[in-house]
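Re-running the complex after MR caught last week's input typo. The corrected sequence lines follow. Everything else is unchanged.
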Amino acid sequence: MADSFDEMNGWGGSDPRAAYGEIRRWLDETPPEILQTRHAQAELLFRRTGITFSVYGDAEGAERLIPFDVVPRVLTAAEWNRLEQGLVQRVEALNLLLADLYGGQEIIKAGVIPPELVTGNPQYQLAVAGHVPPQGVFVHIAGIDLVRTGPDDFYVLEDNARTPSGVSYMLENREMMLRLFPELLQRAQVAPVETYPDLLLETLRSVSPDGADGDAGIVVLTPGPHNSAFYEHSFLADKMGVELVEGADLFVRDDRVFMRTTEGPRRVDVIYRRIDDAYLDPLFFRPDSTLGVPGLLTAYLAGNVAIANAVGTGVADDKAMYSYMPEIIRFYMGREPLLANVPTWRCREAEHLSYVLDHLPELVVKEVDGSGGYGMLVGPHATKAQIAGFAAKLRAAPEKFIAQPTLALSTCPTLSDGRIQPRHVDLRPFVLTGAKGVKVVPGGLTRVALAPGSLVVNSSQGGGTKDTWVSG
Amino acid sequence: MPMLSRTAANLFWTGRYIERADFVCRLVDATARLASLPSTYGGDPTAWTGALASAGVADAFADTGLEPSELNITPFLTIGAANPSSIRNCLERARGNARAVRTALTREAWESLNGAWHEVERFTGPRLSRARAGELVEMVRRAVLAFDGSAHRTMLRDDAYWFLQLGAAMERADNTARLLDVKYHLLLPRDEAVGGSLDYFQWATILRTVSALTAYRWVYRDTVKPWLVADLLIFNTQMPRSLASCYGEIVELLDHLGEGSGRRGPAHRVAGSVQLGLEGTDIDQVFASGLHEFINRFLADNNQLGAAVAEQFLF
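Corrected-run output:
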C-alpha cells in the first residue's frame, strides 16, 4: 500500500493535503466510537428508506444495503474544474462517435478505428443504422469511471454509455451526510448535488420529439421491483415527478407510444429506459422478453418517441472501443484529450496478446463487454492456476479481452474495523447531454473497496460508497 | 390527473392489506381477552376457532392439520406463512405492492410501512408466546396508525390517495361484515334478562374487534344489547367501521376518482345501489328478513364492487 497515493495524507502518508483540512480536524476531534455509531445510524436509515439493491444469483440476499462509509471523499474546486472539462469533452466525443457510427462512418473510412469494432460488435444495432434520434443526442446520461494515481493524475477507467446506475447513491449519500454531520458540511463549503433530478428532467424534456415541450409525457421505464437498481428507478421517477412504468404499462398504436392509465391511454414522448437494448422490443430484439414494449422500436424509428439513452449506444462504451478513445477525441474534436486513458493492450492484436500473455501476473484483464467486475483477472491477486486458466481463455478468444496495468489507485480515509484506514477508491461522475449541451453536477459516486488492499469497488462484489465533496 | 392502472391497482391492494392487518390485530387482541375469561363468565374455549372464521381462514388452518388450540392459532393468525391473511403476510403484501409503486407514496408513508415490515421480520415462529403476540399486535397497530397518519398528512389529495383509501374502505366493510356473519347467531333478539346473559362477553368481544365498545355507550347510552350491536355495526353512520359508513366513504371516494374524467362507471353504479339499500333499511327490517341472509347479500355485493372497480379502472 505504500506505493499508493493517499488523498488525505499524500505519498507515504506523510504529506498532509490542504483539501482534507476540515476532514482531518473532524477525524482528530471525533472518537471512532462516535463514527461507528453514526455509521450504524446511517445503515438503519438506509434500510428504513428501502435504499437497497439485489444481487443476481444470491438467493438469501434479496435486498441488501450497499455499505456506506461516513468519511467523505474530497476534491478541490480546481481539481473538479479540470475533471469537468475533460468529462464534457469526452461525452461530446461519445455522442459524435455514435452519430457517425450510425451515420456515414467517417471514422472507419479515415482508418482511425478498425471496422470490425463495429461490424463484429453485438452491441451495434443494425436496426437503428441511419436513424437520427431526436435532437441528435445518443448518450443523454453517461457515467464515466475515473481513477486517480497521484495529485494530478486522473484516468478514465471506463465509459458507461448504456444505463449507468448509482446516481441515487450520490444523492442519498449527501442527504445522509447532511443529516449526520450538518455542521461539518457547512464548514467545508461543499457544492450541492441536489440539482441533479431537475437537470435530468430538463435534459429529457429537451429531447422531446416535438421540440422542447412543457407537456411532454416523460416516463422512467424499469424492469420492475426485482431489478437490482429498482430503488434508483423509483427514486429518480419520484424526484422528477414522472411516472415509473414497466413494459406492460406501455403500448404502441399507430407508431405512437401510450401508457395505460385509469382514464384510458396517455401519450408518452420521452422514455428514460433502465432496461437493456435486448429487452426493449420483443419484435426486434429478444422475442422472449416480457420487459419491453412490442412496437416500441417502430415508434422510435418513426421519430415519435425519444429513448434515453438511445438504442445502440453500447457500441461506444465497450472496452475495445475504449482503447481508441484518445484517437476518437482527436478525430472529432481536433484537440488533445483532457482526460487520459489507462494504457490498454488490445488482445485482438497479436503483439499486444503476446505481451499480455507474458505479463499476466502484473496485469488486469477484462472482457471487452463485461461489467460489474465479473469475469476479470486481477493478476497480482490471482493464483498460478487462475492465471493459467485465464491464459487459455485468452488464447481461445483474444478479441474478447483487453489488458491494463494494475494501477496503484489512490486511497481515502475509511472507517473499517472501528478505526480510520486507507482504502482504494474510484469515482463515477454523471454527465447529462440534452439539446442545449452538456452538464455535470459537481461530484459523483465514490466507490470504495472495503477490504484491505482490494481494488474491486463494484457494489456487486462487496464495495461500498462515500459521499463525494467538491469543496472550497 | 390520470394514473397508471397498475399503480392504481397496487395502491388499492396496499390499502386493503394494511386494513386487513389492522383487523387481524384487533381480532387477536379481543379473542385473547375472551379466551382468558373463566368459563363461568362466558370464557369461551371455542373463541380461537371463532377468530379463524372471522378472519376467513378456517379452511387454511384446517389444511395445516394442526390442533385448533391457542398455541397453534395465535402464530397462525399473526406470523403464519401458510395463512394468506396473517398479519405478517398482509404487511408483506402491502409492502410489496407499495414498493412496486414507491413513487406514488410519500417517503413518510412508505417508511412507516417498510419499517413495520422489518419489525415483523423479527418475530419468528413456530411458537409465539402470548406476550410476544401481544407485542407484535401492539407494534403493528401503531405502525398502521403511523401509516394512516403519514398518508393523511403528507400525500397529495389525488388519485393515488383515493385509491389507497378505496382499498381500505372496501376491506373495512368486508371485515365488519365477516365478523357479523360469524357471530350473527349471538346477535339475534331473544327474550332474556337484561344484563344476565353470558353472551355479554361475546358481544363485548365483537365491539372490541371493531374498536367500538366505548363508542357503543356514547351512541346508545345503554347496556350492551345484541340488536343494538348489530345496528351500530351495520347502520350507524358515525361509527367508522359500520357498513353504512364504509359505503358512504366508498361512494365519496369514487366520486373523487370520477372528477378527473367526468366519467362514471360500473363501480359508481354498484356502490350507489348498495348505499341506497342501506339507507332504505333499518335494523328491524333486517331482523325480520333474516340477519344472516342480509349479511351474505352484503358480502356478495362487496365482492361485486371489487370486480366493478377492476373493470372500470382497467386494473
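None of the earlier attempt is carried over here. The two ends of chain A are 29 Å apart (CA to CA). The longest strand of chain A covers residues 141-150.
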